[in-house]
Design a protein that fits this description.
about 200 residues, 6 helices, five-stranded antiparallel sheet, alpha+beta
Length: about 200
């Protein structure tokens, strides 16, 4: 009833949502390269939504190619009729994602791995995508803890970019760089909301 009233008086509907996806397997390490490249481009773009959106599209397409490695997922979000309240919730989710294990990027470190021929194999990767958008997208406003719904949600994110409806995009991932490892114990401790797919 409140949604109908707010629409009737011309208020803009904002949705903020976060999707967490856990990929697991011996072949998931290359996704860290895609994530790190997108992070560098996002930093260089200084918040340009077109560049951030293109990075999101590439990430969603990459995640769909890795579907056989999807192990668990979770999502959360809320609807707002005030841009300020939506922005506050984006910041809250950003802070939460950034405080989780292994999501800190360090583009300036000189890793010891440069000097060796082997790097520990990353078997677990968590990707956290937080977006804010205008309008209504049922594919993102539902439980995404099953493979079909998650695929539709990722496709919907791509569509939002091309419809120019995205207002905020944030991506966090763990581990943040090749050579770091996210153990099963760390997964349970820092990502307890994940539901097996």
């Amino acid at each position: 009833m409140r949604d109908s009233f707010n629409r009737m008086i011309g208020k803009t509907r904002y949705v903020v949502c976060r999707i967490m996806l856990h990929l697991s397997g011996t072949e998931v390490a290359p996704i860290l390269g895609v994530l790190n490249r997108a992070a560098r481009e996002a930093i260089d773009a200084e918040g340009d939504m077109e560049v951030l959106g293109e990075g999101l599209v590439e990430l969603c397409e990459t995640l769909m190619r890795y579907e056989e490695d999807w192990l668990s997922a979770a999502n959360e979000g809320d609807v707002f009729w005030s841009e300020g309240e939506a922005g506050d919730y984006v910041n809250e989710l950003f802070t939460d994602s950034a405080q989780r294990y292994g999501t800190e990027l360090d583009f300036h470190s000189t890793s010891d791995y440069d000097e060796s021929f082997s790097v520990p194999v990353t078997r677990n990767v968590i990707v956290m995508i937080t977006v804010a958008f205008e309008g209504e997208v049922p594919e993102l406003e539902t439980d995404l803890a099953n493979i079909t719904a998650l695929k539709e949600g990722l496709k919907a994110l791509i569509g939002l970019h091309y419809k120019h409806k995205l207002r905020a995009i944030q991506v966090h991932f763990s581990p943040a760089q090749l050579g770091d490892e996210l153990t099963n114990d760390q997964l349970l401790q820092h990502y307890p909301e994940l539901i097996p797919l």
